[in-house]
Specification:
Elements lengths: L5 E9 L2 E5 L2 E2 L9 H10 L3 E4 L3 H4 L2 E8 L2
Antiparallel strand pairs: 1-2, 1-5, 2-3, 4-5
Length: 70
């Protein structure tokens, strides 16, 4: 069986908005999408939550997402 290879995405969230994605700050993050809007967009692109979905209802924290390469 082949080992699955994943793309990883780390999203640091503050005040219900993504603030950093993979260590890069999002400009004008206060006017940007909400966490739920960002995750909805990423889900359409094939990403899934891998770690700490509690950031969704707390409005802050670190979300780790993954998607199969291919």
């Amino acid at each position: 069986m082949q080992k699955q290879i994943w793309d990883w995405l780390v999203m640091l969230c503050e005040e219900k908005h993504p603030r950093y994605i993979n260590g890069k700050e999002i400009p004008n993050w206060q006017q940007g999408p909400s966490i739920v809007e960002a995750l909805d967009h990423l889900a359409w692109k094939g990403w899934e939550i891998y770690f700490d979905p509690s950031a969704l209802w707390r409005g802050e924290g670190k979300l780790v997402l993954r998607r199969p390469k291919g």
